[in-house]
Amino acid sequence: MVYIRDFGSWIPPRIVTNSEIGEQIGASHEWIVNVSGIEERRFASDHETVESMAVRASKDCLYRSGIGPEAVGMVMVASGSSGRAFPGPAAIVAKRLGCESAVALDLPMASAGSLFGISLASRLADRFGEILVVGAEKMSSIILREPMERGVAALFGDGAGACLVSSKAGKAKILESVIASDGSYADDLKLEFEKPITMNGRSVILQASRKIPAAIQTVLERSGISVESVGAFLLHQANQNLIDKVAQAIGVTSNKFYSNIRKYGNTSSASMLIAAAEWSREGGFQKGVPVVFAAFGAGFHWGAAVVKP
Amino acid sequence: MSKKSTSPSPEESLFDSGLLDSFALTDLVAELEKQFGIRIPDADLNPRKFDSVERIEEYLTSRG
Fold first, then answer.
1. pTM
2. Which of A155, A199, A200, A202 would you mutate first to test chain B, the one with the most B CBs within 10 A?
3. Which residues in A have their CB inside 8 Å of a CB on B?
4. How many other C-beta atoms are found inside a 10 Å radius of the C-beta of residue A212?
5. Do A205 and B45 touch (CB under 8 A)?
6. Contact by Cβ (8 Å): A130, A120
7. What is the C-alpha to C-alpha distance for residues B3 and A233, in angstroms, rounded to an integer?
8. How far apart are CA A123 and CA A294, in angstroms?
9. Per the CB 3.0–4.6 Å rule, which of A6, A28, A112, A165 could disulfide with A297?
10. B23/A200 CB distance under 8 A
11. Is the confidence metric ipTM above 0.90 for this complex?
């Protein structure tokens, strides 16, 4: 059996309101809220990097887990906004954390990266022991590239989240996970070198609104858990309207879907773990009550996982 | 679908005319499945297939 020990997060202090970003991209506060549910996001300072934010979130996670860096056997870092093609941030993050004996693995996958990390870690933990899964993004360094598309630039923010997956003990058992990919849609959401993000929002929403519910239903069926018994759904925070669509599709009220997109925007690979960390601090796992994770992003990649305390 | 008093012409883009947006499209697809008793596979969920009344008719006809 493999467990989730705990979560961690770090959010830059600088708040960027819809009014501030809206002046740069030609969008009103009301329009941004209407299309996304986002009211503000955080931007990292010039000296912060994907690596530095990942380290901050990881330290928070290790502290909450009661584990020292020397005990970590693998560090996975998901990021779509890393500053260079290679090496990716994982080896640097492992070094700065003091995870001297850890294998480092990059997941350059953007929004679904953390979910893929948890799923892979659940299969690798028997070999590597404690696996630190991190999602970190500095989207502010990307979204203002010209030509700006207001429907893209308004959405994103910076931050990092982390999760420790363990073969030994933890707060919740990972019961089941599914991950999937379809490269047919690779051009529908992409970030090429030195260019702005391009997104076919209609395709993204249409596919995500079908694939996320299907992935959730698959993990619940495989683990023999009813959707009604799930206590919380922790999704990639892409868009509040999408989260509401997923809730509607599986027949659950939206208030079971934890959401912090209003204040952080879409932090891509970091968002699901930031949400999990905040949800955990606000009460989190209840004994015997299942919790579902799910994400969808560029690739397209998507998946879901179910855990039970 | 958003409210609009006029009906679209068969070839008019439902997106460009403001009758349809990304999230309304998901509702439209669900309603088509319900009304016509079909399951539209994910591979067929190309927004262009549902961009006008004419294209929706073409798709439904292709499904028999």
1. 0.95
2. A202
3. 184, 200-207, 209-211, 241-242, 245
4. 26
5. no
6. no
7. 32
8. 17
9. A112
10. no
11. no
Instruction: Please list every residue in chain A whose beta carbon sits closer than 8 Å to the beta carbon of residue B42.
Output: 207, 210-211
In one letter, which amino acid is A73? G
Give the mutation candidate from B14, B19, B23 for the A interface (greatest A CB count, under 10 A): B23
Which domains are seen in chain A, by residue range? 3-166 (3.40.47.10), 172-308 (3.40.47.10)
Residue A7 to residue A276: CA distance in whole angstroms: 7
**Number of neighbours of residue A106 by Cβ within 10 angstroms:** 19
Chain B residues in contact with A246 by the CB 8 A cut-off are: none
Nearest to B26 among A184, A201, A205 (CB): A205
Contact criterion met (CB < 8 Å) for A242 and B23 = yes
d(CA B36, CA B60): 8
Interatomic CA distance for residues A138 and A148, integer angstroms? 17
User: Which residues are CB-neighbours of A237 under 8 A, at least 6 positions away?
Assistant: A243, A259, A260, A261, A264, A265, A266, A267, A271, A272, A274, A275
Query: How wide is the angle at C-alpha A152 spanned by C-alphas A147 and A158, nearest 5°?
Result: 110
CA of residue A42 relative to chain centroid, distance: 15
